[in-house]
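Changelog-linked ticket: calcium ion example.
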Amino acid sequence: MNGRSSRAGAFWEKLPDLVKALAALVGAIAALAGVVVPLWQAGVFDGGNGKEPAKLDPSLISATATSTLESDPEAQLHYFARNTLDNNRKTAWNSDGSAEGESVIYEFERSVRIARIRVVNGYAKSDEAFKWNARIREVEIITDDGAAPREFVDSDQLQTIEVDSGKTSRLEIRIESVYPGTRYRDTALTEIEFWISP
Ligand SMILES: [Ca+2]
Protein backbone atom coordinates (compact mmCIF):
# COMPACT_ATOMS: atom_id res chain seq x y z
CA MET A 1 0.00 0.00 0.00
CA ASN A 2 1.15 3.50 -0.62
CA GLY A 3 1.01 6.18 2.04
CA ARG A 4 -2.20 7.67 0.73
CA SER A 5 -4.25 4.49 0.94
CA SER A 6 -2.90 3.67 4.42
CA ARG A 7 -4.08 7.11 5.65
CA ALA A 8 -7.49 6.35 4.12
CA GLY A 9 -7.38 2.98 5.83
CA ALA A 10 -6.66 4.67 9.16
CA PHE A 11 -9.71 6.89 8.65
CA TRP A 12 -11.98 3.93 7.99
CA GLU A 13 -10.56 2.16 11.04
CA LYS A 14 -11.42 5.15 13.18
CA LEU A 15 -14.92 5.56 11.73
CA PRO A 16 -16.65 3.21 14.23
CA ASP A 17 -15.22 5.36 17.09
CA LEU A 18 -16.55 8.52 15.44
CA VAL A 19 -19.97 6.90 14.97
CA LYS A 20 -19.93 5.80 18.60
CA ALA A 21 -18.99 9.31 19.76
CA LEU A 22 -21.74 10.83 17.60
CA ALA A 23 -24.27 8.27 18.89
CA ALA A 24 -23.24 9.10 22.47
CA LEU A 25 -23.71 12.83 21.77
CA VAL A 26 -27.16 12.25 20.24
CA GLY A 27 -28.03 10.06 23.23
CA ALA A 28 -26.90 12.75 25.67
CA ILE A 29 -28.99 15.40 23.89
CA ALA A 30 -32.02 13.08 23.89
CA ALA A 31 -31.53 12.32 27.59
CA LEU A 32 -31.25 16.05 28.37
CA ALA A 33 -34.42 16.73 26.33
CA GLY A 34 -36.09 13.90 28.26
CA VAL A 35 -35.37 15.79 31.50
CA VAL A 36 -35.98 19.32 30.22
CA VAL A 37 -39.33 18.64 28.53
CA PRO A 38 -41.02 17.20 31.67
CA LEU A 39 -39.62 20.13 33.74
CA TRP A 40 -41.07 22.54 31.22
CA GLN A 41 -44.40 20.67 31.23
CA ALA A 42 -44.39 20.78 35.05
CA GLY A 43 -44.04 24.57 34.87
CA VAL A 44 -40.62 24.75 36.51
CA PHE A 45 -39.47 27.29 33.96
CA ASP A 46 -42.53 29.53 33.95
CA GLY A 47 -43.27 30.25 37.58
CA GLY A 48 -44.44 26.82 38.71
CA ASN A 49 -48.13 27.22 37.91
CA GLY A 50 -48.01 26.44 34.20
CA LYS A 51 -48.85 30.02 33.20
CA GLU A 52 -47.34 33.46 33.64
CA PRO A 53 -49.32 36.16 35.49
CA ALA A 54 -51.35 38.36 33.17
CA LYS A 55 -52.20 42.05 33.42
CA LEU A 56 -55.73 42.67 34.68
CA ASP A 57 -57.84 44.78 32.31
CA PRO A 58 -58.17 48.24 33.97
CA SER A 59 -61.84 48.42 32.91
CA LEU A 60 -62.52 45.67 35.52
CA ILE A 61 -61.08 47.83 38.33
CA SER A 62 -62.57 50.73 40.26
CA ALA A 63 -60.39 53.18 42.16
CA THR A 64 -61.15 55.44 45.13
CA ALA A 65 -59.07 57.21 47.77
CA THR A 66 -59.62 58.40 51.33
CA SER A 67 -58.05 61.77 50.44
CA THR A 68 -58.07 63.48 47.04
CA LEU A 69 -56.86 66.95 46.06
CA GLU A 70 -59.64 69.15 44.69
CA SER A 71 -59.83 69.45 40.90
CA ASP A 72 -58.78 72.64 39.16
CA PRO A 73 -61.40 72.79 36.36
CA GLU A 74 -59.91 75.95 34.80
CA ALA A 75 -56.56 74.25 34.32
CA GLN A 76 -58.41 71.02 33.50
CA LEU A 77 -56.48 69.28 36.26
CA HIS A 78 -58.07 66.40 38.16
CA TYR A 79 -56.44 64.23 40.79
CA PHE A 80 -58.86 61.35 41.34
CA ALA A 81 -57.63 57.80 41.94
CA ARG A 82 -58.95 56.66 38.56
CA ASN A 83 -56.02 58.60 37.02
CA THR A 84 -53.73 55.75 38.13
CA LEU A 85 -55.50 53.33 35.75
CA ASP A 86 -55.50 55.36 32.50
CA ASN A 87 -52.07 54.37 31.13
CA ASN A 88 -51.16 58.08 31.00
CA ARG A 89 -48.05 59.48 32.70
CA LYS A 90 -49.49 63.01 32.62
CA THR A 91 -52.32 62.16 35.04
CA ALA A 92 -52.01 61.10 38.68
CA TRP A 93 -53.84 60.66 41.95
CA ASN A 94 -52.87 63.40 44.44
CA SER A 95 -53.75 63.36 48.13
CA ASP A 96 -55.10 66.55 49.70
CA GLY A 97 -52.18 67.36 52.01
CA SER A 98 -50.27 64.66 53.86
CA ALA A 99 -51.04 61.14 52.66
CA GLU A 100 -49.73 59.37 55.75
CA GLY A 101 -52.51 57.10 57.03
CA GLU A 102 -54.51 57.63 53.82
CA SER A 103 -55.36 54.89 51.33
CA VAL A 104 -55.90 54.32 47.64
CA ILE A 105 -58.40 51.49 47.24
CA TYR A 106 -58.91 49.27 44.18
CA GLU A 107 -61.91 46.97 43.81
CA PHE A 108 -62.21 44.23 41.21
CA GLU A 109 -65.28 42.99 39.33
CA ARG A 110 -64.37 39.45 40.33
CA SER A 111 -62.02 37.96 42.92
CA VAL A 112 -58.47 37.63 41.64
CA ARG A 113 -55.17 36.28 42.89
CA ILE A 114 -52.64 39.12 42.57
CA ALA A 115 -49.06 38.06 41.91
CA ARG A 116 -47.58 41.55 41.66
CA ILE A 117 -48.39 45.17 41.13
CA ARG A 118 -46.40 47.55 38.96
CA VAL A 119 -46.49 51.25 39.76
CA VAL A 120 -45.20 54.60 38.53
CA ASN A 121 -44.67 56.43 41.80
CA GLY A 122 -45.18 60.18 42.31
CA TYR A 123 -46.44 62.75 39.79
CA ALA A 124 -44.47 61.63 36.73
CA LYS A 125 -45.72 64.17 34.17
CA SER A 126 -42.53 66.25 34.57
CA ASP A 127 -39.32 66.31 36.61
CA GLU A 128 -40.64 69.38 38.49
CA ALA A 129 -44.00 67.78 39.35
CA PHE A 130 -42.18 64.67 40.53
CA LYS A 131 -39.87 66.64 42.88
CA TRP A 132 -42.46 69.17 44.10
CA ASN A 133 -44.99 66.52 45.23
CA ALA A 134 -44.34 63.75 47.74
CA ARG A 135 -43.90 60.14 46.62
CA ILE A 136 -45.14 56.99 48.33
CA ARG A 137 -42.56 55.19 50.48
CA GLU A 138 -43.75 52.59 53.04
CA VAL A 139 -47.17 51.02 52.60
CA GLU A 140 -49.41 48.28 53.92
CA ILE A 141 -50.87 46.24 51.06
CA ILE A 142 -54.26 45.12 52.38
CA THR A 143 -56.32 42.43 50.61
CA ASP A 144 -59.07 40.01 51.68
CA ASP A 145 -56.13 37.73 52.57
CA GLY A 146 -54.54 40.11 55.12
CA ALA A 147 -51.99 42.92 55.23
CA ALA A 148 -48.32 42.96 54.23
CA PRO A 149 -45.75 45.78 54.46
CA ARG A 150 -43.95 46.88 51.30
CA GLU A 151 -41.68 49.78 50.29
CA PHE A 152 -41.88 51.75 47.04
CA VAL A 153 -38.73 53.05 45.34
CA ASP A 154 -38.35 56.83 44.88
CA SER A 155 -38.41 56.71 41.06
CA ASP A 156 -40.70 57.85 38.24
CA GLN A 157 -39.95 54.63 36.34
CA LEU A 158 -42.22 51.59 36.35
CA GLN A 159 -41.36 49.43 39.40
CA THR A 160 -42.57 45.96 40.35
CA ILE A 161 -43.82 45.01 43.81
CA GLU A 162 -44.42 41.33 44.53
CA VAL A 163 -47.73 40.77 46.32
CA ASP A 164 -48.80 37.10 46.14
CA SER A 165 -52.29 37.63 47.59
CA GLY A 166 -54.88 34.90 47.99
CA LYS A 167 -58.16 35.40 46.16
CA THR A 168 -59.24 38.95 46.81
CA SER A 169 -61.93 41.33 45.64
CA ARG A 170 -59.94 44.44 46.60
CA LEU A 171 -56.45 45.79 47.20
CA GLU A 172 -55.84 48.77 49.45
CA ILE A 173 -52.57 50.68 49.51
CA ARG A 174 -52.38 52.31 52.95
CA ILE A 175 -49.59 54.85 52.97
CA GLU A 176 -47.40 54.75 56.09
CA SER A 177 -44.63 57.15 55.02
CA VAL A 178 -43.57 59.26 52.04
CA TYR A 179 -40.54 60.78 50.32
CA PRO A 180 -41.28 64.49 50.97
CA GLY A 181 -41.89 66.87 48.09
CA THR A 182 -39.88 70.09 47.88
CA ARG A 183 -42.99 72.28 47.43
CA TYR A 184 -46.20 70.40 48.40
CA ARG A 185 -47.29 67.91 51.03
CA ASP A 186 -49.60 66.27 48.48
CA THR A 187 -48.52 62.75 47.61
CA ALA A 188 -48.97 61.36 44.12
CA LEU A 189 -49.28 58.05 42.30
CA THR A 190 -49.25 58.16 38.48
CA GLU A 191 -49.93 54.58 37.36
CA ILE A 192 -50.66 51.12 38.71
CA GLU A 193 -51.00 47.74 36.99
CA PHE A 194 -52.35 44.54 38.59
CA TRP A 195 -50.81 41.27 37.44
CA ILE A 196 -52.90 38.25 38.36
CA SER A 197 -52.15 34.53 38.56
CA PRO A 198 -54.47 32.24 36.56
CA1 LIG B 1 -52.09 58.18 34.96
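Closing comment: Example verified and attached. The two ends are 73 Å apart (CA to CA). The longest helix spans residues 3-41.
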